[in-house]
Amino acid sequence: MRTTTKSRSILIFEEYLQSERTTEYYAYHINRFAKYFDLPSWDSILALEITDLKEKIEDYVIYFKNDGKSLNYIRVITFAIQSLCDSNDKIGINWKKIRKLLGKKHKPRKSRPYTTDEIKRMFSVTKGLRNKALILFLSSSGVRRGAIPDMRIRDLKQMTHSCLAVTVYPETNEEYLTFINKEASEALTNYHNQRKHDGEELTLDSLVFRSIYRNSNVLPKKLDEKSINFSKFVRKAIEREMHKEQDDFV
């Protein structure tokens, strides 16, 4: 029989969620909840009396709400803790009431990720490692381009299966955690390796993405948010395809 160092509550939690990405995301928030209340383990959370646990969750939600965190950020926290409780048969908490503490949810601005076809088209007219890494980073993480210029390497954390966890808007009211897949992570590594090869010393404070440079000795500059616009690559790819069709017709 194979032995494991994980507690039964964690094993059941992982099997309950099934999705590795969601498991890692929720585990991050559960660990922060435990640390906030000086609880040494997940079992310590589950061992609390229902009334005590309910009040701690309420206090935690109100703390982040008063701190100005976004409703979506706090909502994910409640889903994470609820998943731990539900998967381990810890019942008796009115989760609907807990989420009522958040107030009304604002309707998000309409947006959509790049389609697979659009990504392929952009890659067909993109040569630089930076832009390829940036395209995959944005499409995989769902991060808005406004978060890119200030993003630092310390905001990245290696996860299982070659994925990366990304802390967006760290230490602000809008802070949240997202992930990029293996393909995006590998493209980012290739881009960073190129910068190292060109003589740049990458540290935890280094920019994840920097402006294009001709001389590696020049101090790295932040990207201009307005320059992070890949619609032009899509248009360029479409124009190339149209010209090719015209040439074939002739």
Low-confidence stretches: 245-250
CATH homologous superfamily title of the largest domain: Intergrase catalytic core
Number of domains: 2
> What is the rounded distance between the termini?
70 Å
- Strand elements, count: 3
Percentage beta strand: 5-15%
**Mean pLDDT across every amino acid position:** 82
Biggest sheet strand order reads: 1-2-3
Identify the CATH architecture of the largest domain.
Answer: Orthogonal Bundle
Written overview of the protein:
The protein has 250 residues and is mainly α. It has 2 domains: 8-100, Orthogonal Bundle (DNA polymerase, domain 1), CATH 1.10.150; 116-231, hpI Integrase, Chain A (Orthogonal Bundle), CATH 1.10.443.10. Helix content is 52%, strand content 5%. It has a 3-stranded antiparallel β-sheet with strand order 1-2-3. Helix 2 packs across helix 5 and helix 4 (50-66) runs antiparallel to helix 5. The longest helix has 19 residues, at 231-249. The N and C termini lie far apart (70 Å).
